[in-house]
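Title: Comparing notes on inverse folding

I've been comparing how different people in this forum approach sequence design from structure. To keep things fair, I'm posting one structure and asking everyone to reply with a full sequence. Here's the target:
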């Protein structure tokens, strides 16, 4: 009898965490490492949110709470959905988890049976397919090409849907590409979904507030209200509020689905951290005026990275509409050899050679389901980004 579960053979560790860990190990040896692999803002959590957490501690709000969120946070989430997205939810239609990742995982665990399919556009956040596999489902990936701005077409979505499809996972702005679907582009996708009433929509709106230039964020149930009762709209406070470590994600959806998610959570983690919940109340209800200045810094950083990477022969770097990632193609570099003698035959080989020879840590495209590319998180300082991109330029110019 095997000791470990067969389930483990269906999944792999997160490549983004693996690259971050490798970079940390090299840094611990004294190497000069620039980490661009983690999807985490370098801004500190705003003071008014930290103050709310301190006040919660001082008031003794450190006990167990309701499994899926305190009433005050659920009310704040309902108000946020109405204010920002025009979506109406009651507190009974809200779930709060330990990060958006847990909400997504709970949802798939609560709904998938063997043979159920989940349509996932690629490039995708690395955890989507593995969470589907852990829940016993089958991920069906749909590749979005550089030529279409890393966005799938209605025809591609239509072709991917079968009688076994249960969920369509939708993420805009995207991790890893930063691509954002316009309202008209999203309406074309929701029109397809309206023709398939057995398919539910699982959104990941974590980068909602990081929308740049003329791009305006929208979410499926907002664009097509008829999808409201078969959509779970997932969001959280991690990115826009610089609260990654606080671990608060949330979602709004049909009450029976929310009850099923609550049942899963009641037998796993129970409630999210009580202190983090009170901080999230302040994040959603309090001042939002820091978001726009932060976005201006992200735009400046994005433009530094895109400009410097597009100066490299063999790299094509689209300018993303949102989030804080770029996803350049390195098709023109495949087959070359690095100055250290490493053959660049895949984007993983590129990322490993770049880290070992220059100290720049990024994530290879195969981890996100589309190659040959890599992902850079530009959620760090201008100086670090300029230094990193200069090292990438030098590394690529030395390829033969």
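Reply #1:
Here's my take.
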């Amino acid at each position: 009898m095997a000791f470990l579960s067969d389930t483990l053979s269906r999944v792999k560790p997160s490549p983004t965490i693996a690259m971050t860990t490798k970079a940390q190990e090299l840094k611990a040896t004294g190497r000069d490492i620039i980490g661009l692999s983690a999807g985490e803002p370098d801004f500190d959590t705003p003071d008014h949110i930290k103050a709310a957490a301190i006040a919660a501690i001082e008031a003794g709000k450190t006990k167990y709470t309701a499994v899926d969120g305190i009433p005050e946070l659920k009310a704040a989430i309902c108000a946020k959905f109405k204010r920002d997205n025009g979506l109406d939810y009651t507190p009974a239609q809200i779930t709060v988890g330990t990060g958006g990742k847990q909400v997504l995982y709970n949802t798939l665990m609560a709904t998938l049976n063997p043979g159920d399919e989940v349509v996932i556009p690629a490039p995708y956040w690395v955890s989507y397919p593995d969470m589907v596999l852990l829940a016993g489902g089958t991920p069906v990936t749909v590749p979005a090409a550089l030529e279409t701005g890393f966005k799938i077409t209605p025809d591609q979505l239509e072709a991917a849907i079968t009688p076994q499809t249960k969920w369509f996972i939708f993420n805009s702005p995207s991790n890893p590409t930063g691509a954002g679907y316009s309202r008209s582009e999203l309406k074309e996708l929701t029109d397809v979904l309206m023709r398939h009433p057995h398919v539910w929509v699982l959104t990941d709106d974590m980068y909602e507030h990081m929308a740049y230039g003329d791009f305006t964020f929208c979410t499926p149930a907002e664009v097509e209200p008829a999808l409201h009762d078969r959509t779970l709209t997932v969001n959280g406070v991690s990115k826009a509020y610089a609260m990654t470590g606080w671990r608060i994600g949330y979602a709004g959806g049909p009450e029976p689905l929310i009850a099923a998610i609550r049942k899963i959570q009641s037998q796993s983690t129970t409630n999210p951290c009580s202190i983090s919940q009170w901080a999230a109340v302040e994040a959603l209800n309090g001042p939002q005026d820091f978001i726009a200045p932060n976005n201006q810094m992200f735009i400046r950083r994005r433009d530094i990275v895109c400009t410097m990477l597009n100066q490299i022969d063999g790299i094509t770097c689209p300018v993303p509409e949102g989030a804080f990632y770029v996803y350049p193609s390195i098709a023109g570099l495949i087959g070359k050899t690095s100055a250290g003698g490493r053959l660049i035959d895949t984007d993983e080989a590129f990322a490993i050679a770049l880290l070992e020879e220059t100290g720049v840590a990024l994530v290879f495209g195969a981890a996100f389901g589309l190659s040959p590319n890599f992902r850079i998180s530009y959620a760090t300082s201008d100086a670090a980004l300029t230094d990193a991109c200069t090292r990438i330029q030098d590394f690529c110019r030395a390829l033969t």
